[in-house]
Design a protein that fits this description.
Elements: H1 5-11, E1 29-35, E2 38-45, H2 53-65, E3 72-79, H3 82-92, E4 107-113, H4 120-133, E5 138-142, H5 150-153, E6 162-164, E7 167-169, E8 172-173, E9 176-180, H6 195-208, E10 216-220, H7 227-235, E11 240-245, H8 249-265, E12 268-280, E13 286-287, H9 294-306, E14 312-318, H10 320-328, H11 332-335, H12 340-353
Parallel strand pairs: 2-3, 4-10, 4-11, 5-9, 5-10, 11-12, 12-14
Antiparallel strand pairs: 1-2, 6-7, 8-9, 12-13
Helix pairs in contact: 4-12, 6-7, 8-9
The structure holds adenosine-5'-triphosphate (ATP).
Residues 113, 116-122, 144, 147, 149, 223, 275-276, 316, 318-319, 322-323, 326, 341 line the site of adenosine-5'-triphosphate.
Length: 369
């Protein structure tokens, strides 16, 4: 195997679109020679039917043509042998959950709600896209076993992960690496597993799915205080919780239960988001369709229960375009980033990711009830 150093340098700038690592590090460059202005390169794909074949081909071609001495490119594509794939897998797959390592720099944030329909999944999808738009490396796990809506909200309702032997590569939508329990059950049927089955499924996701280095991992939890919330706290002890509510007093009371689960799981509740806070009318006035004050009330209640500071991270207006964006699979923060609701979500995303080391989630010195 010969690899010409100038070509190697150029090829090190080509990333495998799924593994997000330079192809030179993944053992994909089989040979690369340069003679009389012709670069002859052989690149090995991880699997025969690699869906990213043409992207890799184009990226390699462009990288080689950027080398001053190269006038012609002769690129051939091959496929890794089972031994080469095993070697690659060994280098990538860790048998433990990378995000539970105390040294992990990934911020893990679970999004919870007291009941369904408050916009938890819509906000999670938009928050993830807002973070990715800000240049962060974002993963999103749809753990809402009662209704896997995240792939649809992100425009990839039928996407399935790519498998390289036992390694699972998540599909990417709007710059977010997405995995959903729905991608592993036949016909996207709701899952009726409970307790240990769910725990095992989540554990497998977190271990086998290769997310690569992430800045943030968001989890869309099922509404209420179910088994998944407990599993998340056990499998990802460093994970933090955000609770979504609507402005209605009754909704805030139900949401308090979802937040106060943190007392027993030991998770930090880092804030509350109030969704559907008001509707902007054509004359410029606002209508509080679902009442007001629920977000603030929930934040106060959780502070009392948990004995830690729980800020209201923001309020998001009702916006028919947000609903339409969800139906089309293009989140509002992407399609209409200037819309008030999109700006509110982006501000919350920034508050979550650029949090100064404040009191949020830390004991206030008040005894929990
Ligand atoms: N701010 C908003 N403005 C307008 N529509 C919204 C807003 N937030 C959510 N919706 C709409 O409300 C409905 C419920 O939202 P979503 O499915 O995200 O809720 P959820 O809390 O995740 O529910 P579940 O947990 O039952 O899946 C959807 O049709 C969604 O488009």
């Amino acid at each position: 195997m010969t690899i010409e150093p100038r070509l190697l340098e150029a090829l090190s700038r080509v990333q495998d679109p799924e593994l997000r690592r330079p192809i030179t590090e993944l053992g994909m460059v089989d040979s690369a020679t340069l003679s009389n202005g012709t670069a002859k390169v052989r690149v090995l794909l991880t699997i025969a039917g690699c869906p990213m074949r043409s992207t890799i081909e184009a990226d390699v071609d462009a990288a080689l043509r950027a080398v001053a001495e190269v006038q012609h490119v002769e690129l051939t594509l091959g496929v890794m042998s089972p031994e080469q794939r095993a070697e690659l897998r060994e280098s990538l797959v860790s048998r433990s959950i990378p995000f539970s390592d105390p040294a992990s720099l990934t911020r893990v944030i679970s999004i919870a709600s007291g009941k369904g329909g408050v916009g938890k999944s819509s906000l999670t999808a938009n928050l993830a896209c807002a973070m990715a738009t800000d240049g962060l490396r974002v993963g999103l796990i749809d753990a809402d076993v009662h209704g896997f809506s995240i792939p649809g909200l992100l425009g990839i309702p039928h996407a399935s992960p790519t498998r390289v032997d036992e390694m699972i590569l998540p599909p990417v939508a709007h710059g977010v690496k997405v995995i959903s329990i729905g991608m592993f059950v036949p016909d996207n049927k709701p899952v009726i597993w409970r307790g240990p089955m769910l725990h095992r499924a989540l554990e497998q996701f977190l271990t086998d799915v290769h997310f690569g280095d992430l800045d943030v991992l968001l989890l869309d939890l099922p509404p209420g205080t179910g088994d998944i919330a407990i599993s998340v706290s056990q499998l990802l002890p460093g994970s933090e919780l955000v609770v979504i509510t609507t402005p209605q007093a009754a909704a805030a009371q139900v949401a308090e239960r979802a937040g106060s689960i943190a007392v027993s799981t030991g998770q930090k509740v880092i804030g509350v988001i109030e969704n559907m806070s008001w509707l902007q009318l054509p004359d410029g006035s606002t209508m509080e369709v679902f009442g007001s004050g629920g977000g603030m009330e929930l934040a106060h209640r959780l502070e009392l229960v948990l004995g830690t500071e729980v800020p209201l991270l923001g309020q998001v207006a009702l916006d028919p375009m947000l609903r339409a964006g969800g139906d089309k699979g293009i989140p509002l923060v992407i399609s209409h980033p200037e819309a008030p609701a999109a700006l509110q979500i982006t501000a919350i995303a920034r508050a979550l990711t650029h949090r100064p080391r404040g009191l949020a989630g830390r004991p206030l010195g008040v005894s929990p009830r």
